[in-house]
Design a protein that fits this description.
Blueprint (H helix, E strand, L loop, with lengths): L21 H11 L10 H5 L4
Length: 51
């Protein structure tokens, strides 16, 4: 697994403690914006340990 270099600026997308998974963040974001289309890799579910 690749890691993000320490020199890279990061943004914490955690919404609440214990809910940092991508799909939970995505669900909240799409409630606030109009999304015309989205393409997600199948590996997101396979490799996201919080789903």
């Amino acid at each position: 697994m690749k890691t993000i270099p320490l020199s890279t600026q990061r943004i914490d997308l955690a919404l609440t403690q214990g809910t940092p998974d991508l799909l939970s963040v995505f669900d909240v974001v799409v409630q606030e914006v109009q999304v015309e289309a989205a393409i997600l890799a199948a590996e997101i579910i396979e490799h996201n340990r919080y789903t």
